[in-house]
Every structure is written in structure tokens, then in C-alpha cells.
Write a structure and sequence with these properties.
about 525 residues; 8-stranded mixed β-sheet; 3-stranded antiparallel β-sheet; 20 helices
Amino acid sequence: MDPELIDSLRIDLAAADYRPGSVELLLGAAADGARQRGVFAPARRALAERGEIGERGERPLATLARVFLLGEEVPGDALDAALPALGRDGAVELGIAARGAGGGYRAELSLNPATLPGRGLPSDPTSERAADRWILSDLDDHLRRGPARPDHVMGVGGATRSLLAQADPRDAESALDLGTGCGVVALFLAAAGVRRVVATDISERALRLARANARLNGFDTIEFRHGSLFEPVAGERFDLILSNPPFVITPRGADDRPVYEYRDGGMTGDELAATVVRRAPEHLAEGGALLCLANWETPWGGNGLERVRRWIEDAAQASGPLAGWAIERDRVDPVRYAETWARDGGARPGDAAFERLMEDWGDDFAARRVVAIGLGSVRMRRLAAAPGGSVIRVEQAPGSFAEHPGPGLGAAFDAAIAAERMSDAEALGTRWVLADHVAEQRAHRPGEEAPRAIALTADRPVARRVTADPLLAAAVGACDGDLTLGQIADALATLLEVDVDAASEALVAGVRELAWFGMLSPDARRSVE
């Protein structure tokens, strides 16, 4: 895509104030929300009622919204007015617009304003709209109204937003975006201040759009490389690897079925996700971290999360000590999973194509006796060789995420690694600090002095509720950094008239668990004595 044309497009989009907040003001919150769900009538009505369509003409923002957000065809002179630097001819040459059946111009690519995490555009570091981006991708299902092409390039989907929300790139000097697609994650990394960003993809078309998006948003330092998985970065290591890979479990062997590059890694079952997890650590610098999204299978009589544990163990055996944390956010049955992804390609119930896809998925899952599919993320950190070896935790955590859980998840991971690698004596000699967002709930029956149940709750980074006995609840309340855990255990053992060794053992186990939940962390200033 011609860089000069992209520069002209950037000028026009900025002049039109083509940004998420402006679009919402133009359409109204309800109509804009409906538009994002693929329901366009309220937005069209809002434009008409506000005089944005008709003989009086319309603002460039309204024209851009009609073409790229509502899928309408507009006259050439209207598109020229909305894109004065680029013009209709430039839009066609760039590939973002084409002549429509009615003689006007319609969108050929999606051009979405999106709000993403970041620290502002390099071209305008003082901008208050620090997280606004313009993203080129293929038309989504609402605008395409038909099957996607096999080399379809996704825009900013829910999975990408989930990955960005869980990421914490603050301390990374170098980062790899594995399977960049349209380049959103690479833009996020560059905007977060990562000095060296490498983005890879097996799709040349995806890389072409990713390069265009980098130019369109003013990021000119991202390195884009073509190739499968880690082949383009052989021998290189990074402080951070983020990946939203094509992890969708897809039937193999049906030559007449569409293969979508953005979601199908070309491997049987969940082997693509397993390969990313097993091979990533060899590309991590010491202390470096991986965060990837994944789906994993649970076969009859097995446990999907334990299979992920074995992936991490395999990686540690090959690359040295690792900390690994797999979080299963949801678990679905094979029928629901198949239906979701059959619809994703554009097929609909009742179509012959949809029924064939459902049969293919059913046969594929039956061949491996799959009874459930886990949806979640895998986080790993490469550890320095030290006593204690690897630290691995796999769990279901369906509680809601905080609005920006990435830093909290990163801090909890670090605290948990420290807690797990301590000896019991070191844990007892450490001063622990309770997070500010932790609350205690006590259930009392009227007239009873002692509570019937005690629970510790937190709303971030993941909503948690932990049942606690009086010993743990009292100990947590005393974790303000003044006393070591051992001193707290001694005092409570005397107060509650329990064995001090048993109390110490229970509190060490409790502290390690609460560290994973982001509720407790070692006081770095006054830790082991």
C-alpha cells in the first residue's frame, strides 16, 4: 500500500476527527452501540434526523461513518469532500474503497476508529486522545454479508482486546508480536514505549495491512517479518512475547472446506497452542515473559488444564526453569464450540455449508473423544536457575476482570513466583502486605457472636472470593508490613490457643495461595530478615 497515500489518508482522518468519541457524539450512544452490534437502522435514522444526509450536504465525519461504519454507498463528490487529500481515486488505488453497483463508492476494507491502550501517537505525544487508533482490516461479518475470504485479516476483535487488557509491557525493552494480523498488538507495544518491536505473520496480506496501520498511526520503528511461528526470529530473544495465534481447533482433511489463516494454524486439535507454549521460552530473555491466548481440549477421562500444565513442563525441560500460569476463563462443549466457529466464517444454520461444517467438527472431536474445550490464556516467565525449580499453576478463574487487569495480573504473578520459590522459613521471615482492594465478609446468624463463615474478596485483577478460617483472616488483617509472618503466627497461636507449628504451616500455605490472587505480596523494602 502506497505510503504517500496512507499519509494523505491520515491527514484526512485527523481533519474529520474520525475517532470513537466523535462517532458516538455524531450518532448518539444508543445508535452507536447498536452499530457496533451490526444493527445500522438507528444510526442511519440519527444521521437523517440531524440533517447529515440530504441536500444540505454532510460533514466529512458523517460521510466516513456512512461508508466505513454503516456499509453505505456514497456519491464520488461526497467521498472527495470527506477525503480531500486522498480523494476518491486515491481511496480506490489504496484499496479502501471501490465503485458500487449504484455508481457511487463503497468500502472495500474496514477502516475503524478504535480506542486501545497506549501512551499517545508519536506524531502528537501531547494528544489527549492517547488511545485512539485507526485500524485497516477486512470487512467484518456485518458489512461483508457473506463468507470471508481464506486470507481474511481480522480487525480489533474480542480476543485481541482480551490479550491487550491482560498484557503488562511496562518494563520490556524488546517485544515480539507473534501472529500480528492487522498489527494491533504491535501498535500497542510501540505505544507503550517498547523500544524494539518485531511483528510476524505467515500471511503476506496481513503483514501488508499491518505495515499500513503502523504508517497510518505514526509508528515507523516496528519490524514486520514474514514466516511461520518462531521461524522469522530464530536465535533471537525478547523481554516480552504477546500472541493471539490462530488457535481455533479446526477439522483437518476436508479439502473443500475454507481454511481461514487468521484462526486456523493448520495443526490437529490444540497442537498449535501447545507448540507456541513449548517453543516460546527459547525466545525469552532471562526474566522475559510470554502471554498468549489459547484453546485446549479436554478428552474423555482427562483434564484440559492438566494437559496445559504438561505443555509448560515440556517447555521447562527444554529451556530451563519457568513460571507458568494458565487461566481458564470459560469451558464449552464441542457442539457450542463448533457452532461458534461455523458462524464466524459466514455460514448460517439451515445452509448446507453450515451443516457440513458441523458434521466435520463433530467427527473431528469424536476422533479424539473430546468432551470440552477450555478458553483462556497462558502466562510464562523465564526464571534464573535457582533452588526451587519451576513454578506452575493451572486454574479456572471465571470471575470478572478489572477494567485494566494487566498490571495487576503481572504483579500477582511476580508475588506468587516469589512466594512459591521461598522456603517455609523464608516465607515466615518475610513481611507481607495486604492489597488495598481486599475486603473481608463475615456471615453472622442473628444473636451469634462468632461468624458462621469468613470470606476474603477482591475485585481485581480477577474477581475472587476465598473462604478463610479465623486464623488466616486474622493473619491477613495483620499483614501491613510491620511484622513478619512468623511473628504474626506466634502471636495468633498464643491468642487462639493453637499449636504454633501448625499455625505457621497453615499460614505459609494460605499466603502462597493469596499471592496468586493478587491479595498479598512480599514487602520488597523489608522482606526476609
